[in-house]
Amino acid sequence: GESVGLHLPTLSVQEGDNSIINCAYSNSASDYFIWYKQESGKGPQFIIDIRSNMDKRQGQRVTVLLNKTVKHLSLQIAATQPGDSAVYFCAEIVSGGYQKVTFGTGTKLQVIP
Amino acid sequence: DAGVIQSPRHEVTEMGQEVTLRCKPISGHDYLFWYRQTMMRGLELLIYFNNNVPIDDSGMPEDRFSAKMPNASFSTLKIQPSEPRDSAVYFCASSLIVVAGGYNEQFFGPGTRLTVL
User: Fold this and answer.
1) Which of A73, A78, A76, A36 is nearest to A54 (CA)?
2) pLDDT less than 50: residues of chain B
3) Which residue on chain A is closest to B5 by alpha carbon?
4) Does the beta-carbon distance from B98 to A101 stay under 8 Å?
5) What is the pLDDT of residues A65-78, one digit of tens each?
6) Residue A4 class from Cβ within 10 Å (0-12 exposed, 13-18 middle, 19+ buried)?
7) How far does Cα A51 stand from its chain's mean position?
8) Edge-to-edge strands of the sheet including A62-67?
């Protein structure tokens, strides 16, 4: 079946550096892509999303890039801070009456002070 | 709003026992989702409700799992009898109504960590 996967299970980054988390997806029918952040002991928290007709979207310190040609999604975090340490999930949605969300397996981001 | 509330936060039980997990969605949200998270399988959707009605339960593992939503502010996920392989973190999430061609952000609760011995 369709699935969303991540290339890197763990990413260690020095505080202040930029982080890039990658994700591959396989469902070309997906309309939206979302990045979630999950801190230890908490549920996933929405960070940023991007619609399939866009290739870039920026938020506060975060940028999501979408490359539909190779079915690749990335999350860039600028000036990574210790509070960014968490597991990051990409997810895809086929919109409509039922917003079925398919989550990737997650990448753990470790920020080194 | 306090967000999505789940209880208990941790549950340890013995194999064969009945387990009931509880969820209070965000007031005004029309959709409620139950997810299970394990290291092996990641986040899996078990079932979701729209206006208290179960819409899709295809993710429910087997008949031992059941979910109800008696009103707009309360839902339960029950496992009877529980087995060690049910050990996982169970999340409840809620969202507003979905607009045509769009989606609405799902807000997750803190989860219930279930351990079946």
Assistant:
1) A73
2) none
3) A43
4) no
5) 999 999 999 999 99
6) buried
7) 13
8) A4-5, A19-25, A72-77, A62-67, A56-58
